[in-house]
Amino acid sequence: MFSSLRGRIIVIAAVLAVCGWYLYNNGVSLGLDLQGGMHLVLEVEDTEGTMTPESRADATDRALKIIRTRIDEFGVEEPIIQKAGQDRIIVELAGIQDEERAKDILRQTAFLQFYLVQSGQEYQAFRNALPRMDRAVLQAFGEDAAGAAPEDQDTETVEQLLFGDTVAAPADTGQADTAAVPTRPSRRPLTAQLLESGQDGQLLVEERDYERVAEWLQHPQVERAIPRGATLRWGQEPQGQGGQLYRPLWVLEDRPFLRGEELENAQPGKEQQFNETIVSFELSRRGGRIFERVTGENIGELIAIVLDQEVVSAPVIRSRIGAQGQIQMGQAPLEEANDLALVLRAGALPAPLRIMEERTVGPSLGSDSVSQGQLAGMVGLVLVVFVMIGYYRVAGVLAVGALAVYVMLVLGGLAAFGANLTLPGIAGLILSVGMAVDANVLIFERIREELNAGRVPRTAADEGFKHAMSAIVDSNLTTLLTALILFQFGTGPVQGFAVTLSIGIVASFFSAVYVTRTFFLLYLDRKSATDPISI
User: Fold this and answer.
1) Over 310-368, what HEC string results?
2) Considering the entire predicted model, what is its pTM?
3) What integer pLDDT is reported at residue 527 of this predicted model?
């Protein structure tokens, strides 16, 4: 069937129909350099310097899977996510609009933990340790820490004699509960910065002093002065009080009672009563049992939900909670809740990621590349058509018809495989056009040789295709192997070139050997065996 003229026409029509179907349904996606978008190179960050090459490679592999899940849920079409070397990940997002949001989603570790907030005697033990922490700050930072607070007053006030180091804040803020505002003697730098919120387990630091106090608390000497059984975590967002911004500092138990590995689902939403943004989560069966036991034993206490070492919310435990709960996000936009739910569903990264390289392609640059690529392709095709028809006459017209089929095959192949058409891909497409034409040139020259040797046109055509076949197979096969090697070991634009070139080689071989010969058979079928042919 495939060797008869009717069978050949049916095969070509079927192939064109399949390509047309894929083009109609999928279309050809443009790559980063044509559509515009973002190119990132990420690297696993070893913050503690303890990773071996093997563990670093393993962390990169796990991060690759999590990033792929996050990007798929983010909704970017045809992203490129691949490993480069042992510890780097390349991410290409074509057509991305909100670049900062995408980077935040990629970099966020999403390490979720649940802690109990200290209260009562435990919290008082931390308060009693503040003088020791003050001395540690002074030893570590010297006069820089002492000078961070206002100068001592020359004489103690009556309030200081009676009530110690703090006086009540003026009650002119219109709020029922106001934080106590300490005087700031220079020899108690840390105590002077930590304001009581009126709630056990929570202290407040003025937002302008947040970075300095955070630096003090991270020093090893100060960390050793913190009482055993306690750990400190900053709030994720500052909160307003009395017309000023304060950063919450939470005093938590030193170990979480539950981690994010037990989380099975997370969805954004709005709380109906107060219209606050929330993220509802669902725990596994084991996580639900732990959560239910701990909350049942600590009704009335605070539970801190910690994401990436920062407290997202700290609700009061009002009743026993099972496998479902909520993360309260106040008046945050629903988009933030959606992003948080996305990264929680995808899971936590095994280690933080650092952006090593960032490249952005604007839509205007992409459209210019498309225009230039189209111009180059059209000029190349017009020159090929002009040369083929001018030199080979009717045979050249048949070759141009086969070339049109070839273009349809390439575009359909790109749509079928979901491959992105990139600027290097256009170069590969034009190169494969040249190879398709080269195959036709080999065939036509062999047919001419047979005609010059006195063969009749039908026999000359058969012999020409037969003798040119070995050279065509060799050239196409070696180029295809080269393209496969480029795809295996290349990255980004190199892979785009390799994919388009590979599809183009297969299409050019089919069009030159099968389609062109079918057109020749149609042409010869209308002529007698002895009529000359124009070639």
Assistant:
1) EEEECCECCCCCCCEEEEECCCCCHHHHHHHHHHHHHCCCCCCEEEEEEEEECHHHHHH
2) 0.57
3) 67
